[in-house]
């Protein structure tokens, strides 16, 4: 492997250097106005479920969550829509709360009843009984995440992001790992003994694609099933260069990726629905054409190119035509730009850019062509959007070692998603569950 190629992989983070439709009821949600939700005390055995729901709603960053301690007066079960004289709504309103969530063990086996109380109207807006593992273990935890997202949708009209997962590469083992969006349930996904690069989710979250750096210096791109782990190699990517930064098209039928050779790098597209028909989208005369990311409508691809001298973000049509600079230069105030990711709603790109020798996160607004810096503390890189186009996962060393962090663009809140080892190259899944 040439020194040029090794340096290029390091700069990309590809090798180590030195993570029922929403129904709007009651109030309207507006940015900056966060409804306060009270999580009512629950019967014995529901502590785990209550804690998971409270944390999920907190992490949605759309609400202020108040968890009442044990010993609060019990609430009487009610019928949906019925006036709730047995619940002390007036007391809870003194907490400036608009909503209350009540959990109750159902009579039959592993089941739980969930009630959403509208404190402004003194009624129950939702009354649902679910067959669920109330311990929050295994896939029962994901069921609770889905319930959290439903609750967020019922209150605000916008589902939450709890029922999602993150992929990342662990630097020590070089394997891809999976973790729930709240940091629980770390599971290795790619085979041991192989260096995995640049994981990305399929649009339906049933598969993920990644590069595999072999002992011979070659790296094919592999598509792996999430359940069962069956793997398929993308055609023509098994030799003749190294292949990294794959990205599925929004319909899942195509995969764009980068091929690296001694002559330079180019972006290609393969038909992965039929596992055939690879075509080149960019020229190889530039040393760097990297990191493709699709617009949500599938019509355009943003990517990194150094054709102007310093790696910056360009855009082209999905067939490779109409290539042009996308993110404006800042005339030397910062350096190279890398790792763009197009938001699911199509309005923004997030990427990292060198600032005084350290990578920092930036957001580019497509409509206004404005660029905003998001981070400044430590090294922050390799961002990826959550399905709500509001949260971003990225890698930061601000707490001492490289870990997954999540930033909320509306409140600027940052939280760490801790992993056992050093994390790299995160990807955020689409939602993993429909509404109830």
Strand arrangement within the widest β-sheet reads 2-1-3-4-5
Mean pLDDT: 86
CATH architecture descriptor of the largest domain: 6 Propeller
Rg calc:
23 Å
Q: Tell me the β content.
A: 35-45%
The backbone outline, from C-alpha atoms, is: globular
Give the full name of the CATH homologous superfamily of the largest domain. TolB, C-terminal domain
Top CATH class of the largest domain: Mainly Beta
Low-confidence stretches: 1-31
Measured distance between first and last alpha carbons: 52 Å
Secondary structure category? mainly beta
Helix count from the secondary structure assignment: 4
Largest sheet: 5 strands, mixed
Indicate the percent of residues in helices. Answer: 10-25%
What would the CATH topology of the largest domain be? Neuraminidase
**Number of extended strands:** 29
- Our count of domains comes out at 2
Q: How is the secondary structure organized here?
A:
Elements: H1 3-12, E1 36-39, H2 47-59, E2 64-67, H3 89-93, E3 99-105, E4 111-118, E5 123-131, H4 139-156, E6 165-170, E7 176-180, E8 187-188, E9 195-201, E10 207-213, E11 221-225, E12 231-233, E13 242-248, E14 254-261, E15 264-271, E16 276-280, E17 289-294, E18 300-305, E19 312-317, E20 324-325, E21 337-342, E22 348-355, E23 358-365, E24 370-373, E25 380-385, E26 391-396, E27 403-408, E28 414-417, E29 423-428
Parallel strand pairs: 1-2, 1-3
Antiparallel strand pairs: 3-4, 4-5, 6-7, 6-29, 7-8, 9-10, 10-11, 11-12, 13-14, 14-15, 15-16, 17-18, 18-19, 19-20, 21-22, 22-23, 23-24, 25-26, 26-27, 27-28
Helix pairs in contact: 2-4
